[in-house]
Every structure is written in C-alpha cells, then in structure tokens.
Specification:
Distance between the termini: 55 Å
CATH architecture of the largest domain: 3-Layer(aba) Sandwich
Structural class: alpha/beta
Strand content: 15-25%
Radius of gyration: 22 Å
CATH topology of the largest domain: UDP-N-acetylmuramoyl-L-alanine:D-glutamate ligase
Number of helices: 16
Strand order of the largest sheet: 10-11-15-12-13-14
Number of strands: 15
CATH superfamily of the largest domain: Mur-like, catalytic domain
Length: 421
C-alpha cells in the first residue's frame, strides 16, 4: 500500500488531477494516479490523440497539476493554474510523496547517467537491490508503482527537475561536475547552478557529495558546502586498481571518486566497489569505439550534448581528430567553445541547426570546416579526406532534436552509416 501524502495534497486528490505532458513522465504520473484510484486528465501541447490543450476553462476542474520536466516554471499553463489556485508539482516531486524508501540523487552537467547506472550495478553486486529512475527514461512515478519499498532508488535528476523541488528529500546527493549547458532554458549560468543547488538544499548536509567544479562555482556565488561534501574529483592520481575498467582515466574517474565517497559513508565494503568497477560497462553512445574502416577509427559519442562533454572526448586523443559536431542549440558561448577545442580538431564536419554559426567560429579560430546537410554526408565527406591512422569522432556538443528523435537515434544512425562503408 502506498503511503498517505500530506493532508493539503490529499485534499486536492479528491478532484481530477491535471497532468501536463504526454511523454514518459506524464504516462508515469497517470500510472501512479491509477494506483491511487485518482482520475488524471492529460494535457499536451501537441494536442494529438495523447491529450488535449489546457485552456483557462479547465483550471476550475482541478486542484492539483503535475507537470513534466519539459514545462519551465513560467510556462503559461502553469501560470494560469497557479492563478486559479492550483498546486503545481513536478513529476519527481509528486512521486516522492509516495516513496518512503532510500533515494540517492545523482546530478551534474556530465557523467550523471553513467554514475547512476554504476551505483545500481555496484549495489546489486553486494545484494542491495537497486534500480535506476528519474531522468533516464524510467520516471519516478512509475518506479513508485512498480518497485518494492526495499529497493534503493538511484535517481538521475536534471536541472529541469530540480528547480521546482519542494517535497523530494534525497537520502544523499552526488553532484559530479558543473559546466555550461541548458542555457536555452536557464537565464545564465547562475540560474542553471541555482536550479541544481535546489537539490542540494533538499539533502542532509552530511550526505552531499560535490565534485571540484561544483565547489568552485559554489564559492564563486557565495554558497558554502561542509567539508564532508567536498570531493577532490579533478587532477587526482589514477588508482591502478581500476586498470582495465571504464574508470581508468578521466573523465570517468571523476564519477568513480564521487561513488567511492558515498560508498564509504554508507559503510559498504570498498573492495566490492572496485570489483564492480571492473565488471561495469558503459551505456550506448558514450564515447564508444565503433570500429575501424580503411585504417580510420570511428568513435560514437552521441551522448555528448554539451561543450564540456565534447572537450572531455577530444581530450582522449594525442593528435587532432576529424570531428563531427553540431545540432540543436542550447545556449552558451559558441565562440569560446570552438576556441577551446581548436587545437584538437584537424577538420570539422558540421551538421544541424548550428552548422552555419559553428562554421563561422571555426573560420575565426583557424579550424577547417565543411557544412554537411546530413550525418551521412558528414561521414562520407570525412572519409574522402581521412588517411589511415585518423580518428573520426561524432561528439556533437548539442541536442539532437533538430534532426533526430534523440541522442540514441543519432548514435544508432551513425553506427549504421559506419557499418555500411
């Protein structure tokens, strides 16, 4: 049986609940409402068969709105609902009202999915049943319905989910790193940091684990972290016990150091974490060697949807690479980004919405660049210029939704194109 929510929320569940967004989060909310015996009414901006448009007339029908992360706090539908007296909760927050088990929150500009998956792998290896949830395609609402209370919820939390939190109280929070991203949604780096900091404030002070770049930005903005929260995650000597694992080098070593800090605090055997690291495998489309054709090695890093991730990927190579980049803009200083990677790129092949502006910055920084209409054209054009020993790297640095269904679709198409060469 699911726990009872606070009385003010329980009172609002006596009326139909408005659910904003027909995607993974929205469907999860409907599943949880059904388990509670509460009617949910789905509204979706696309207004297709999945839902309907939310109009002012609908506000009188509801006392509670649960919204997907894609809805910014200032969205007109949420504004109208608040004016009408509705309580508005994000999907993650709503689910937390019905979860009394352990929840470890994972956030960061990069590495959070890998860290989430690794902690689940490690916990299961010591017979502590754990499962991924949150910003990984398995909503917390659905998790609450389908998982036993003894399960450890290892929850990836995006800035979109964190910025409106009220009820979620993580057992612990691990924040890997902080760099430029999502500035199409947040009004500057300060706002982006503040969104993630909301998650920190919901976590007990003794259970916050923050990487070096997080500490630096916190200090810059006048925020303080207890000494127990500060993990020296950058520039550390690599641990030879991780040789042969995905954590044997940066940037993945940073994830391991955060995991190790939490693991020790949880009183779990350190040797078990190192053993789990040796058997852990990265998810798809995360800086993966696809293969070799005509002496050229191909790398699929489609998951790199921000500048920081691209810089980490290119940092693996001693020589400049053939780089495929571009996609849907997310804000940020493109000129500074291209300048930072300029020494790592011998030739750029640019796709997506940002290809023209990227080409301009490449020209300014002395990086040869070719604009390509499709990903297939980029690969084939690169092959006409490649020589044996070259590294061809898909590490876009931008969102995929201008040309693809998601980063995974982009990565699959890339691998299919390479295979067909």
């Amino acid at each position: 049986m699911l726990p009872q929510p606070p009385s003010d929320i329980a009172a609002r569940l006596t009326r139909p609940v408005a659910v904003f967004g027909a995607g993974v989060s929205g469907q999860g909310v409907l599943a949880l409402l059904a388990a509670l015996g509460v009617r949910g009414v789905l509204y979706d901006e696309k207004a297709d068969d999945a839902g309907k448009i939310f109009a002012l007339a609908e506000t009188a029908l509801h006392g509670l709105v649960v919204f997907s992360p894609g809805f910014p706090p200032e969205h007109r539908w949420l504004a109208a609902a608040r004016v009408a007296g509705c309580t508005c909760l994000g999907e993650l927050d709503f689910a937390s009202l019905f979860w009394r088990g352990e929840l470890v929150a994972i956030t960061g500009t990069n590495g959070k999915t890998t860290l989430t998956e690794f902690l689940v792998h490690a916990l299961n290896s010591v017979s502590r049943h754990a499962h991924v949830t949150g910003n990984v395609g398995y909503s917390f609402c659905r998790f609450v319905v389908e998982q036993a209370p003894e399960t450890v919820a290892v929850c990836e939390v995006s800035s979109f989910q964190a910025e409106t939190l009220r009820y979620l109280k993580p057992t612990a929070t691990l924040w890997t790193n902080f760099a430029e991203d999502h500035l199409e949604r947040h009004r500057g780096m300060e706002a982006y940091f503040a969104a993630k900091w909301q998650l920190i404030e919901q976590t007990p002070a003794s259970a916050r684990f923050c990487g070096t770049s997080v500490q630096s930005y916190a200090q810059k903005t006048g925020r303080t972290l207890p000494c127990s929260s500060t993990i020296s995650s950058e520039g550390q000597a690599l641990d030879p016990r991780l040789d042969g694992s995905v954590f044997a080098a940066y940037p993945q070593y940073e994830n391991f150091l955060l995991a190790l800090a939490w693991w020790r605090q949880a009183g779990l055997p350190e040797t078990a974490l190192f053993s789990a690291a040796l058997s852990f495998r990265l998810g798809q489309h995360r800086f993966t060697r696809v293969g070799e054709k005509r002496g050229v090695t191909f790398w699929n890093d489609s998951k790199a949807t921000n500048f920081h991730a691209v810089e980490a990927a290119l940092g693996h190579f001693n020589q400049p690479v053939l780089w495929i980049g571009g996609g849907k803009a997310k804000g940020g200083d493109l000129g500074a980004f291209v300048q930072r990677i300029s020494r790592k790129v011998r030739q750029a092949f640019l796709i997506g919405e940002t290809k023209q502006i990227l080409a301009t910055h490449c020209h300014t920084c002395g990086v040869p660049a070719i604009i390509c209409a499709t990903l297939e054209e980029a690969v084939h054009t690169a092959m006409t210029l490649a020589v044996p020993g070259d590294q061809l790297v898909l590490s876009p640095g931008f969102a995929s939704f201008d040309m693809f269904c998601g980063y995974d679709d982009r990565g699959r198409q890339f691998e299919a194109i390479v295979e067909s060469l």
